[in-house]
Aldo/keto reductase
Amino acid sequence: MYYRTMGRTGVEVSALGFGCMRFPTKGGDSSRIDEAQAERMLLYAIEHGVNYLDTAWPYHGGRSEPFVGNVLERHGLRDRVFLATKMPMWEVKTGADLDRIFDEQRRRLRTDYVDFYLLHSLNKENWKRVEASGALEWLQRKKEEGAIRFIGFSFHDEISEFKRYVDALGEGWDFCQIQYNYMNEHEQAGTEGLNYAAERGLGVVVMEPLLGGYLAGRIPRLEPVWAQSGRSWSPVEWALRWLWNNPKISLVLSGMSTLEQVEENVRIASTEGGAPGNLSSGDLEVIVRVREVLESSKVIPCTSCNYCQPCPHDVEIPRIFKIYNDAEIFGNVGNARGAYRWIPEGHRASDCVACGECETKCPQQIEIIDWLKKAGELLEV
């Protein structure tokens, strides 16, 4: 297993982290974890060097944290791994909620302390709750008390908001967690945000390395590109190697659902694939070509230039169009609807009042109002 330094913490974390939100389940019920199979997966990963487990309050209907805590306790593995979990800011109404939820999380995880603790899914709406509850001061206090070792946040919004949150605590932050992959260089925090955080000493944890599974499958129109690369790598290996090639990325999380996925990801992270600089210039050109082929399938010619922002009614137009295009490019409406649910109420396609201000600013002359209607019809169910 390759290990990388988590920013200013100086801690060495495995290149691959185990995302604990996609365990195998029973009967199609996400709250019913197939505990026997999931335990085998966790133990295999830890035995092969994975030392970072990422869970959260809502994962698997609240069952992920207690399951992970139980496995670690029964096998005496707590001291061999770094535990990461998150404060669900959407459930925080007052400062008292912070202590109540955190104490329950430690009980679930069967631990007195959490190694890496995040404010979960920061965006404009959740940031209001951060400010109202005094969450930043609370984080710093818990760190001083030793209940939390390192503090950070996960993020789902636009780059200007990301920089705002980083600057709010400055060197007080130890790390951040962003959605990032070779198709999302200019989405949410993106490459600009990654660099912004890393240059300020934050460790950078990457989530959604496969774009919610979109980049894992064999897409027929990409086969000629892969074949011409001269590499025998799977689409998964290409996607993970592209991330690990970047020395500013501390760790890549993968939400694995089968033992075979764990074995494949561990294998890649345990070879030179988990090291910075593992790709040649020719390999990087392959990824550029893959991106070009996929982006040529976009139905809305949005470049995410953000000239339409801010919308007078707070509609997140570029983000909505990105999700709609992904649904068309990859043919997976279910994944797109899942991504769309992360957009806060009040910022969605149906919140458009057809004022037309955005259309006067769009350099691509996109019929934004009509496309928002189509996006709402597809994604808001």
Summary: The two ends are 42 Å apart (CA to CA). The longest strand covers residues 114-122. The chain has two domains: 3-286, 317-379. Residues 317-379 form one domain.
